[in-house]
Amino acid sequence: MRKVLILLLLAAFLPGSEHNITVIKNPKANIIEKPAIPLKHVRTIPLRLANNVFNIDPISATADGDGNIYLYDKFICQVRKLDKNDNLLSTIDINSAYKSWQIKKTRRPAFIQYSRNHGLYVYDPMMTTLLRYNKQGKLIERFEKVPFINRIVVSPDGGVLLPEFIENDLVFKCLGKKNVLFRINDYKHEFLFFKQEGAYKFPPRGLFLAGSYFLYLDRDRILIFSIYSSRLILLNKSENVTSNKLLCPKEALDSFYHELLLRKKETFTKVIPFYFNPFFNLNEKLLYVQSRIKTGKSTWGNYIYVFDICGTMNHRLVFDDFKNKYINFLVKNDQEYWVLVNKKIYIFKEET
């Protein structure tokens, strides 16, 4: 799972002191699910993309809005651009952005994000470097000594939004800038059901990064979603939280409760999220989050819950043919859902 990678990277941080953690001891379901819409497997991205170009260990993906997908393969440290017919259009070798004596050549992770107005961003955590490429794949900007980020959030003017803690306040600044753009006073980390002691192994910023998804909605607002508590927050630049809602669908909540009972010992060393792999579609203004739900004593299924920015559940989807398999939802590209299963990329569509 991608979260395992993130947590391993965060383990490199120095241990943090205790900080505000709120335990939601007895959360109540506030959403009743309707039957899920099945997702149908329509094709699989081949291992061989072109002559001598192989899809070996993809871990990150992004879409450009024109039907093209960018895949980052950590085995060879390359970004591959595919068109809507899965044809290879171009390749970016991120090692070429460094001097030869600096390079940690292969098998390192990176996170990618495409901005329609500002090109492709690649964050290379092992090199603590953020790279920006134009639409033609040419390197046009490089930022060094960038603190760890697992989510590249591009502002309307091309800056990269970074979270920071000032005492107990959560603030957001753009990379290389000192001015605070967004702030939540006395920010509290939340966990459903009981305190997970593993949370104390991370400093506040690391804990926030591992458990929160955030992005620019427009010039004045950002959206924040916690995978630990399923809380959705809309925040504007005037330091006002305009919406703050806990999203607790009944089936997901019941299933998570039983999972925590079975994995209670694990919570002393790790943090178990309620949801994972969030993705927000700016065109649709919809948030997609993944969940696993027990459907029998030894059977569980993979679901995607879809919410609008006010926290209303739009619908939910299920990968019917992939029970009891770990699926990582990567990106939604038009009507297609790209997921990672055992290093292979599968494409799904909603059944009509």
Word description of this protein:
The structure is a single chain. The chain is mostly beta strands and 352 residues long. It has a single domain (2-350), classed as Neuraminidase, CATH 2.120.10. 9% of the residues lie in helices and 44% in strands. The chain is built from three helices and 27 strands. It has helices at residues 2-10, 204-211, 250-262, and strands spanning 21-24, 37-44, 48-50, 53-54, 58-63, 69-73, 78-82, 88-93, 111-115, 119-124, 129-133, 139-144, 161-166, 169-174, 182-184, 189-192, 212-218, 221-226, 231-236, 241-246, 276-281, 286-294, 300-308, 313-318, 328-333, 336-341, 344-350. The strands form seven sheets. The chain has an eight-stranded mixed sheet, with helices on one face. Strands 5-6-7-8 form a four-stranded antiparallel sheet, with no helix packed on it. The longest helix has 13 residues, at 250-262. The two termini are 30 Å apart. Mean pLDDT is 89; it is low at 7-18.
A few lines on this structure:
Helices cover 9% and strands 44% of the residues. The protein has 352 residues and is mostly beta strands. A hairpin with a 2-residue loop joins strand 26 (336-341) and strand 27.
